[in-house]
Write a structure and sequence with these properties.
Blueprint (H helix, E strand, L loop, with lengths): L1 H4 L3 E4 L3 H12 L4 E5 L23 H21 L5 E9 L8 H4 L6 E2 L9 E9 L1 H14 L3 E4 L12 E4 L5 H4 L6 E10 L7 E5 L5 E7 L2 E5 L3 E2 L8 H14 L8 E11 L4 E6 L5 E6 L5 H16 L1
Parallel strand pairs: 1-2, 1-7, 2-6, 3-9, 7-15
Antiparallel strand pairs: 3-5, 4-5, 8-11, 8-12, 8-13, 9-10, 10-11, 14-15
Helix pairs in contact: 2-5, 2-8, 3-8
The structure holds flavin-adenine dinucleotide (FAD).
The site of flavin-adenine dinucleotide has 42 residues, from helix 2, strand 2, strand 8, strand 13 and helix 8.
Keywords: FAD, Flavoprotein, Membrane, Oxidoreductase, Transmembrane, Transmembrane helix
GO molecular function: D-amino-acid oxidase activity; FAD binding
Family: Belongs to the DAMOX/DASOX family.
Length: about 325
């Protein structure tokens, strides 16, 4: 059956989750084809900032395991070369005390300590964490997949059963809402502004008194400023008022940002679900279907742990 179907496994979805899953499988000797509606550069994953951080997503205990495994991989990638787009960069998470960080995470987070008063006004923690330049990382994953014999095809499915392989892996993010169908997957819209970097080389995540987040990630293509989180908002159009507010909040933290030239506006819809869905299922004709979607605002953070778990579920 597998021969004439042209491949052992079809991964549907070419964002960070689909690409990483396909890489893990192909490097374990599986024949993998990856189908994607959008070029990898036009996925939600390409919008992300992207900082490795153990954001609280469900299921919390498993997400911690996936995040720590991914941390290990990103540390290895950062140590190797710049081509992967992964670097270890120091920065501060504001409004957080050291004793609030889960102990199992704290012992693994590189150079974790309380931020000094000079580093942050207020309580904050400082660490050296993976900062992933997604416009570089996604094409790098695609190349790594190709090097392992995997094939990327521009294909749009209207149902997962269209994938013509004995094993299908669903990494379609927000599109799983219609494809599964799974109405519990919902968008949380995020907007970012990329500005010319006025000389900032550490990342910063902060929350003001009104609960508004401001963050800045120094990436090779500019300083990425964020951000917004709007539930059930579907527009991919950048909102000029939101962009202005992002710049204002970031400039309140680092005044030199105020005059920085805007290079780009980015909008993405986080594929949010009450809990990540990573499990075995079957297609109507009995073929194995594995779901790996619903990673919300943490898909980059957990990608490698989830990919290895998906590969384990293939058997
Ligand atoms: C503003 C913003 C900032 C973020 N910052 C961070 C961060 O700092 N750290 C972090 O860990 N995460 C961050 N995230 C979250 C992260 O981007 C997501 O969790 C992650 O991108 C989800 O990846 P995915 O591969 O599941 O989905 P996607 O990237 O959306 O990929 C889905 C894939 O499915 C394909 N597809 C969809 N429908 C079909 C179809 N019918 N047929 C074929 N293919 C189909 C698409 O073309 C695409 O290839 C951020 C997100 C946003 C929006």
């Amino acid at each position: 059956m597998t021969g004439e179907r042209g491949g052992e496994i079809v991964v549907v979805g070419g964002g960070v989750v689909g690409l990483t899953t396909a890489v893990v499988l192909a490097e374990r000797g599986r024949r993998v084809r990856l189908w994607t509606r959008d070029p990898v550069e036009a996925t939600t994953s390409a919008v992300a900032g992207a900082l490795w951080w153990p954001y609280r997503i469900e299921p919390i205990a498993l997400a911690r395991v996936w995040a720590l495994r991914s941390l290990e991989v990103y540390e290895e990638l950062a140590a190797r070369s710049g081509a992967s787009g992964v670097r270890l960069v120091e920065g501060v998470l504001g409004e957080t005390r050291l004793d609030e960080v889960d102990a199992s995470l704290a012992e693994r987070m590189p150079e974790l300590r309380a931020a000094t008063a000079g580093e942050y006004a207020g309580s904050g923690i400082r660490a050296r964490l993976p900062l992933i330049d997604m416009p570089a990382h996604l094409p790098w994953l695609r190349e790594r997949l190709a090097a392992a014999g995997g094939v990327v095809e521009a294909r749009t499915v209207s149902g997962l059963a269209e994938a013509d392989a004995p094993v299908v892996i669903n990494c379609t993010g927000l599109a799983a809402r219609e494809l599964v169908p799974d109405p519990s997957v919902r968008p949380v819209r995020g907007q970012l502004v990329v500005v010319e970097n006025p000389g900032i080389d550490t990342w910063l995540v902060s929350t003001d008194a009104a609960g508004e987040h401001a963050y800045m990630f120094p990436q090779p293509g500019g300083l990425v400023l964020g951000g917004t989180a709007e539930e059930d908002a579907w527009s991919l159009e950048p909102d000029p008022a939101a962009a202005e507010a992002i710049i204002r909040r970031c400039a309140a933290l680092r005044p030199e940002i105020a005059g920085a030239r805007v290079l780009e506006h980015r909008v993405g819809l986080r594929p949010t679900r009450p809990a990540v869905r990573l499990e075995r299922d079957t297609l109507p004709d009995g073929r194995l279907l594995i779901h790996n979607y619903g990673h919300g605002g943490a898909g980059v953070t957990v990608a490698w742990g989830c990919a290895e778990e998906a590969a384990r579920l293939v058997g």
